[in-house]
## 1
Amino acid sequence: MNLIKNAICLLLLTCALINTAGAQQKYEWKEGESGGYKYRYISNDPMKARFYTLKNGLTVILSVNKKDPRIQTLIGTRAGSDNDPSDHTGLAHYLEHLLFKGTQQFGSLDWAKEKPYLDNIEGLYDTYNLTTDASARKTIYHQIDSVSGLAAKYAIANEYDKLMSGMGAQGTNAHTWTEETIYEEDIPSNAVDKFLAVQSERFKDPVFRLFHTELEAVYEEKNRGLDNDGRKSYELMLNALFPTHNYGQQSTIGTVEHLKNPNLKAIRKFYETYYVPNNMAIVMAGDFDPDYVIKSIDNSFAYMQSKPVPEYKAPVEAPITAPIVKEVLGPDAENVTIAFRMPGALDTKSSTLLSVVSQVLNNGKAGLLDLNINKQQKVLGASAGLMQWKDYTVFTLAGKAKQGQTLEEVKDLLLGQLEILKKGEFDETLVKAIVNNAKLAELQGLEDNNNRANSLMDGFIKHRGQNWLTDVSFVDDMGKVTKQEIVDFADKYLKNNYVLLYKRKGEDKNIEKVEKPVITPVEVNREAQSAFITKINAIPATPVKPQWLDFDKDIQKGKVGLADVLYVQNKDNGLFRLYYRFDMGSWNNKLLPLAAQYLQFLGTDKYTTEQISKEFYNIACNFNVNSGTDATSITISGLQENFDKAVSLFEHLLKNCQPNDEVLATLKGRILKGRADNKLNKGAILKGLVSYGMYGPRNPFNNQLSQADLDAVTAKDLVALLHTLPEYKHTIIYYGPQPLASAVAAVKKQHVLPAVFKETPAAVKFVKENQDKNKVLFADYDMVQSEVDWVRNTTVYNPENTALLSLFNNYFGGGMGSIVFQTIRESKALAYSTYAYYASPDKKDERYSAVAYVGSQADKMDDAITGMNELLNEIPRSDKLFETSKMSQKQDIETERITQDGIIFTYLAAKKLGLNTDYRKTVYENIDKITFDNVKLFHNQNLSGKPYTYCILASEKKISLDNLKKYGDVKKLSLEEIFGY
């Protein structure tokens, strides 16, 4: 469950998705009434959001979008780590986890028999919390473990997940942050009644069962954070920015000391204080009847009673008068962050100005950082970002050093752009371009229910939705910002009043790991089912008919010279996406990815590279060249009204880009630094380790240009490749409002094709290895945790297996209700993250692979491996879970709508597998025919008792290589072997 939202996502939500177009439009609060309920709305709100306040104070915000038969739901409370008691930090996050454990009505076999044990456990934690003697604490924890085992005999683990899966929900999750805790579900449109019945019960009287195993999952989450240099940097940055405010003084996940001393009574008090209707909101965005939904919500949640909620009285932070310098040590790549403390979301004028300032500096195309730093390759990468909260906003500048550059030099370059900003040395027309691009982002964002719901919930958390008028008029307000206002704002707020954070490579000797307690595995009662779940399943739901693609009807075809055209019309808005798709990538020519990267830094005889970026940004269009392993795609997108300008400009760039030796030399240096940084990143190392385990020493991950090859590449080589790219066979894909004939004519006018396509270079072949015996591939990394992947390659792709494999993955290891998750995390508390699946290839002549994963504390690694091996060798049977998996799979397909250019890419993916029809139809028609015996036989034939390659990433300080020999022959891989450079 995510704790920290990415700052860039917040920026997009704030600056794009809640914006609206049209300076001539009027925005004002109005009142409406429908279905017996009064609501408020903003005139000309593109989301057409209705704001209801029920009698008990519960806020309900509804936004109808009929595009797909699904609804994104969010239930949020305005309480997060800010509201944690200072002696129980992490409490809001604990509670978030526990609200998945059920109530008296579900999650229990027999509440009357379970309750005395839970009361006993609560009392024991009270005693444990107050006990300081180590020996006595160990004795008490042993009692907690013992009584928890007895209580678990009456618990039904993951019944909430089964309830949601059974109704076809997706994305079951939640997150806690500084000012919020939000619970997320994506449900079918016909499941509203079931959803509300479950949620109203869920929040009525939650039971904190299976607490000590869930607590261990939180320990694991904390330890993962201790291995995450980014998380450590984030927390230190906030601590320095906010020496008195809870933003900086109370981390969301809590301190190690408080994690070791949980208090169930304090958690219950938090729930009773903040989970009240006048502090909560239900947001729904999607396909529904708002009159029916508001009445149903009112009926379902009328039991909630309003009561006063204590507000966190935020201290006013003293001004920062000189840079505060901090340093974080860790194994990951070095970087620098400059963070400013700014006015919060309630200061709407400052919020608008800060959003414009941020985008003047960094908008991805034409900002000061984009043009002066990134385009000129002065650093490895530079960016600006916002984290906007109620009381304060955090504005950051961040950068990574290129080869031979110090972090201090990066810092000076970043601060230099602020000086340029304060002098007003930027084009005033940039503000107009920012507004145009915000309009584009709004059109894109309105298509997605998740964007709608999160934007609305964000407004509730910050100001209870009362400033939605400001949010709706945001783009208009941005358009009114003058250059002088930007300069004045920068002069006022962007001085020497910042926190300077250096993330340096080195050993962090201050990490305090949460030690593993002794936990006896508990019952999960897979076959058990409460009467409540039967009741929910019995609620009638209008059937939703699945919709299959008919590639012959849903895709129109044409020709531009030799090139095939695949076309789907956009009937929703004025956006277009044009693709040139080549069936060749790095496996055909290792220079292709380098050439694609090089192009973004090149100019022509007519334009500099900076001018090209500005031109694209000014017309609210984009281009991207991406070269993968077996395909290269050029994408041009934006407003259809600027189609001709955008395509003409890109074609000019591709045809006339000029070689630049200096740019290439700098790019090579940045690539070398990026490669060095990759070797410091545990995620990249593990990815390479798995690829090695799957393919052997020569694999797709390390298929890289060698140092000698990279040195030998010339600017002329790359430019020649770019100039001749259209001469290779490719498919033209268009999704936009133009009719097919007009689209073909428009492309033909701009896109020049040869009389004969050049022959595509042969692709290098990578062959998956046979796992004839167990072996261990090990890579050393300075970390608290250990991460283990199991890899086994099996048979060649067979489309007849698709339905069986889909159901197997859903049942065995694909989610929180799966066998793997229930066993490894819920029963044995061995990991925060675990999964297993049978991976299908994307080409018809390739092989399947079985993959499993556990990330655990290093001292629990042996137990975790043993636990996963048991499941790989023997698949537990749960008829009820199996039926739930079937229901979930069918409902997912019934409510899935493949639309827009997704139709074309689904068709192309099917072609690679040798299929000419929508494979989902075959899956849907065969799911009901599959029995557990079929799944068990498949498991026995492909997973059970078979040899695996164990890919293990851990610290040699924490585990013994000799100990790993019991799993198979051990090979310690160097980073050069893994990365190929």
## 2
Amino acid sequence: MSKLTICTKNKKMKVADNLYGIFLEDINRAVDGGLYPELLRNRSFEDSLLPVDCTLVDDGYAFESCTGWRDEFNGGEGLTKWVRESNIVKTSIPAWYSHKAEMKLDDSDTLNVQRKVSLAVGFDAGGRIENIGFCGVPQKVGETYNFYMFAKSEKPMKLQLIVGNENDICAELEIHSVEYQCYRASYTAKKNCKDGKFYLLSPEGGELHIGFISLMPAETFRGHGLRRDIAEMLENIHPSFLRFPGGCIVEGFTPSTAMRFKDTVGPVWERPGHLLMWHYRSFDGMGFHEYLQFCEDIGMEPLYVCNCGITCQARKEMFMTGQALDEMLQDVLDAIEYAIGTPDTKWGALRAKMGHPAPFKMNYIEIGNENWGLEYEERYQIFHKTISQKYPHIKFVANSHLEKKGISADIVDEHYYETAEWFAENTDLFHDRSRKGPEIFLGEVSVVRGYVGQLYGALGEAAFFTGVERNQDVVTMASYAPLLENVHYQAWSPNLIRFDNFASFGIPSYYIWKMFGSNRGDFVVDAQTETRRIARPVKGMASLLGKPGLKFKNPLWNGSMATVTQEVMGHVILTEQNMEITEPDEEQLEESRRHNGAKLGEVLVVFGEEKAEAGCFQIDILPEKGREIVIGIFTSRIPPMAYVNDETHPPKAWNVENVQPFLWKIKSGSSCLIDQFAPGKPVLEKAICSIKADRMYHHFSYKTDLKKLWLYIDGELIHEVMIPSFAALNTVVTDTEEEVIVKLVNMGEEEENIAINLDCEVESEYCAYVLTGEKLAENSFEKPEHVRDWKYQFCGAGRSFTHTVPRLSVTVLVLKKR
């Protein structure tokens, strides 16, 4: 039985005001066609246009940036898998098609200076153009939809608006101007339609120029233009802040694609939009103003992420200097003025014109996104100094630990994309952090390998956050990433909320954030837990790594010959006296280069089967002078990070990037065991060993019972270590004047009876919010709440009582103080 001793009189710290928030980046078409519910894709007709600093390659299949970074393009449709899975017929103007009409882009006659093209259409009598939306133009019976377009025609012409079934006319328009005018119509849907189309029909024919077009639902979240079901799901998490607008899209992949506040405010038809590195063009209908309005609507602090003059450092970065850097700095100053300036300032006046005379909040600025290095440090200091002089109240978030360089930062943004087991093993990650500052912001956190989007992944995250909550004097903000996903345009998995045109649902992790964010308390109190431990689940066999030319013989598993089953990098050849691993071939090298998995010039071969098995591996290796011997233990595949970075060349089943064994390294009289799984503190143990180089084979072996490892050289025990483990039950306790709130995360496959002892009286009746299920359980459109939190009432609480925690579960107990 586990035990939990709670001392409410010992208040450890106040809970952090803004611990749980959300991070929203336009990835997976999260915003356009999603939270921002525009129904027409490519409404400005510009999706097929490339940024000025990019060129088409591979016959239009891809484009290349001025720095050499490539991405799929497909004429503006984005990833090949999107085209294939949605059966999209490519067209020269993405999402737009014609029947008895001729369409072309006109770059000489546009709506305004921000619009690069207009759509010129020549209709025959009865001709039409149509739009397929974001995999369909949905209509819900009884709901009202608002349509508008800027158009002109040399001669008056009549148009019919049809949505859904091509025989149902929704509205009629009469175009009568030789200059662009805005024509509007509204209608109420007569039937449900999930995958319909939008049609613009000309019964009599004629010539038409369209400068901009839009179709959106009339009813939106609090009347501010956002899709209600998604916005309400976000509201139900009770987030205290919103980090926006990215993410990598802030950086851009070229100077022209970097985010600029100025391009996202004002009338939407005057916003230029831009191509994102997530494979599609954004029209920025949800811009700076809309983000701030959303924050105000549900009571969140805005945390604005600004570009600091660096394009994405994961995509062959460029560093802006001179005027370009000055412009980026001025852009963030103008953004702050827009948010909190008085209506008599330049940008405060625009905010007032957009319908919000009173200032919004703006207390946090993050300088850059996932930036590092000397170039970042220099730019951070420029931005920090300039902004803080004008706005001394603002708290600054840095991307790396600049305080180690003597640079001032209030908060540091750390990102963790790991496995469920890694999160469970690292509940004490922040216990030893300095309490002198800066604060820690976990800006992007999620399980991305293994139990992706499943219950066990959510449990790992929950276990980790019990540790976070016990350290709220250091970790003061956290947000899951990514947040939203249109299921037809997945570029990353998992995402907290998934949706299509008609419905949305949360993955199991959504309910963890909802449970934890809804049950905060006022103080973290002293709580001591006694529980059993679970050894990290391991699988896989031995491997050899190192430089080409590695010589070995007599590989054995439990006394029987162990064969090489995977030549991941390099090939094994048989000589008269031994086996030798040769150089990798070109195909292996290309795989390595593409997925950044191995250092060039290294080899990796794997023995045996990919399964968990206790036993003993033995091998004889020739330790040549200067050579490092590396033996992998529990070498197996783990699913690659759930990110579609190259749809045409996905990682192979065995890829260096997807292999994470323990590494036993021996060189120059030193031996160490490294845990590849734990990048933060990977060395499990070091020891001195004695081997002779270039003279004889030495006998290396390891033995395991799947809970412990014993490593030997020539029969001498060198290392004896426990396989990393994690607590079966993780806990954190907070309280208020009226309540004691106990969070319990059971990572085990058995229910846990926990004896709870308190130093205060509580009412007998108490409630429990519980999320549980099978390890692989997940939600879907068919079963959107297959895994969710449920509320139960219990009785029998007191100073000492026992509660049964279900297997594989998260439980939040709310005890009423007497």
